[in-house]
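worker-3 :: picked AAA family ATPase
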Amino acid sequence: MKTPYVAVTANYIDPGLEEYRGNPLIEALPKIYEDDLVLAKTLASRPTHSEGDLKLHPKLRMHALGRLLDGDFFHPLPNHLNLEKKLSLMIRSGYVKRNPAKHHDKQLMQENYLKSQGKEERIQVFPTTDRSVQSTTLIGCSGSGKTTAVRKVLSTYAQLIEHPDYNMHQQLVYVVVECPYNGDLASLCKNFFLSIDEVLNTKYHRLYGYEIRVGEKTLLQAMKQIVIDHSLGLLVIDEIQHLQDTKDKRDELLNFFTELTNTIGVPVLIVGTPKASGISKDLRGARREIGFGSMNWGISKTESDMKQWRSFAMRLWRFQWVKKRTQTPDSDLLEHLFVLSQGIIDITLKLFVIAQIRAIVTKAEEITIPLLDTVYAEEMKSVHPMLDALRSGNEKEILKYSDLLIPTVDIEDVVKNMPQYVEELDISEQREPEENGLKSLLELFKLDYKEHVSGIALLKDEYPDIDNVSLVRKLIAEVDASKLSLKSVQKKEQKPKTNVVPYGKWSKLDHDDLRYIRSQSNTESEMHSNLVKAD
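worker-3 :: tokens ->
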């Protein structure tokens, strides 16, 4: 039996804004991050890695590579910081108008109860406050890191908070629900109950999934009641492209989300591939009065995106368990890795891991371009159509293949409790930057502090005692390298232009050109004679 999630006891802090004060649901949340650098350090994580690991048996080194696949490695990028800001605002704004201290939730529960009895006419109309909140969609190709990013940001919150001062009220800060493959709306609802049960140790899934037979409208009504009962702060629905996309189903889903956000005040984050763009478009239309648009996640081969991917790849490169490892990859190798992966984080990571496994097995003990090519050709066949579509830039092709499953890495169970030879530097213990001086220095070189905050955190992590001038020099070098790398990648991906000469102009070509000789010949035997003469 699965161990139920352990709730934390509410500890109330000053949230900093007047509209947030006096609301226990907000005061029990973590302090809002005001410093992007602090946020980047909080999100960052890396696996245990030491020089001593290279002395381990080859099989143990292969097991150690599993640390990269278990979520131990996370390098925050600017889009992760932007996502955290949006989710932070969504959760808190949703709680503003659902304050148990002012009995707002009790009113909602009574209204929902009357609706479930079909007695909506009994609800008297009183002057009420608009409860509409911000919701958004997160769209990106499979493997682009959408789900990982959402879960990483949400991990900065306690998921379940108990409030002893409010009759032990249980506050569910967020819940992530995955839409089942080829699932209908009823299946989505049942997955919601299952997700709730895993946190609260309740039996909603058994009740609504097996014990009683109810229609989709009743399931949705039950979902709303649970949302209200447990003060849900954010509902995340992942893999929404799997939902049956018929007009009736879409309209019903749209109405449900609209009621959650506009009537009950629960923000909804929809996550999916470009195949979910139809649902995403309808949701944006239903949120005319809400300021959050759809977030596009992934690589678009802009200079900024290329810099972000390079930052990720450079940090990842440090974690090698091959004996001929290098601290940094050469530019050709890095660019080739980008061309193969198209900047998709999950594919970049798996190419990197599988290449190391092969290098250890073959005793080559080194990551090379031919090795990456072999891994790509043999281990990534299932996603070649998607990557080819991304290389082509054809939107229709990208839409067609955007949700292909990324192949899993077949490694034996990762060895647990391995000895740690070197204690990893605690990111939280690094010194804070002299922000004002650094920002001023960056402005001289027309560099935006916010845009480069992840790179700054990376450099300060690598060089703890670095001064601001040296830091800016290294940052400028990275920016310049990204620009050159982008141009090189674009050049490599350009298709060579073919010089096609129409048949009618073959007679004007050089006389030793085979096409000219063919134009002067009426039969194959005559062409043969002309070729002999040309010789």
